[in-house]
């Protein structure tokens, strides 16, 4: 029985590679049919999601899709209109935010300007009546972890953006919550610091292993941080999976166009008996077309999957190159094919001059993704 239930939990978490995620899958955060309406306006339309204990889940999607609302319902800052929220197995719908054992880190830090770093971090502990000497030990320890020891006496105004963000995280960490909730915590930082803090958050999570739900509109943050990504769109979940599952097998054109930078090219085409016709070119495909000939499709090609030279299993696609953007080791080729604007990646090998003459790229059959043109859903051809 134990063996069987372990297998079930494993499957429900859907992540065979990371054994620490299934051992304790009974805990964590569970959303079931979660709905949010403001009066007659429904903005979250029934969300089902299981976040396993110790798991780092990222909600990602365009602005206004309901990420913050969902997170704030978990935190208790927004009332849940419908559905059930449990944390660590306990129903939380009617539990006050301070009794949910969650700690939230916001984009705007929300630090007290008149308190120094130590007092900002201690604030929540004092409210919870933790003894003074214990508060000091906790603050010192967390400050050390976050590299804040030299700044304990400073006020927020005398800190850099990155340091402020660390204080905000410190304030969450000292409380030893069951769950961390992050709402775009890095959005106010410049690009370099954002990358640095992103890595720090990941290291911290690897060390502390606290269940985390992290909201961002930035797909790179989602890809780099998440154990599993939840792609949201217009108050609904489009797809849930590990970063590589979503990258390799997007369920529809929305997910395909959201993850990856630049995102997957989507080219209008039609299936024939022998391939996919896009403009005057028939792309070779991997798999049998069977009864699908004549079907309108979107042909998905990742920018990094094409080559400049032909090889076994590729088809040449003629393009009109209109821009070359060097990134260093790679360059982005912006091109037109018929009415479609396409972007491809090419190695520079230290020089971009050879790229200006490119008039065709080579598309490997086995890496092409197909989507139904009408529904946008992924289309899997038979073997
Ligand atoms: N208090 C409110 N009253 C009415 N609509 C709201 C309120 N708060 C948020 N919304 C709407 O809910 C939707 C989701 O918002 P939000 O969760 O903040 O999106 P995200 O965080 O993904 O950008 C948006 O359309 C927003 O305008
Ligand atoms: Mg938001």
Describe, in short, the structure shown.
The protein is of the alpha+beta class and 383 residues long. The protein folds into two domains: 251 residues, 3-Layer(aba) Sandwich (Rossmann fold); 111 residues, Nucleic acid-binding proteins (OB fold (Dihydrolipoamide Acetyltransferase, E2P)), CATH 2.40.50.
Summarize this structure as a short list of keywords or feature phrases.
binds magnesium ion; 31% strand; alpha+beta; single chain; 383 residues; binds adenosine-5'-diphosphate; 9 helices; OB fold (Dihydrolipoamide Acetyltransferase, E2P); globular; six-stranded mixed β-sheet; five-stranded antiparallel β-sheet; Rossmann fold
- Proportion of β residues? 25-35%
Strand line-up across the major sheet: 6-7-8-3-9-10
Radius of gyration: 24 Å
CATH homology superfamily of the largest domain: P-loop containing nucleotide triphosphate hydrolases
The stretches of 5 or more residues where confidence is low (pLDDT under 50) are: 1-26
Helix content range: 25-40%
**CATH architecture group name of the largest domain:** 3-Layer(aba) Sandwich
- CATH topology (level 3) name of the largest domain: Rossmann fold
Query: What is the strand tally?
Result: 20
Order of helices and strands: HEEEHEEEHHHEHEHEEHHEEEEEEEEEE
